[in-house]
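Predict the 3D structure for this chain.
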Amino acid sequence: MKICSICKKISAFDEDHLDCVEKRRVELEANDFKESIPEKLDISKSDDVDVGIKGILDHLLREKRKS
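Done. Predicted structure below.
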């Protein structure tokens, strides 16, 4: 028995819970994707983009700079 390093609950096996590991992987993957959106698209400066989409991209850029 071991304590899961992610959720801090007892694990019956000598490793972290599979669902905890998967949840962590998905969260990290989502953060990586969120950070890469403005660089990949780089359309926030284009005149062909709707104002709402520009606002969303600007918001994502500000969030990235904060962290």
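The first helix runs from residue 18 to 41.
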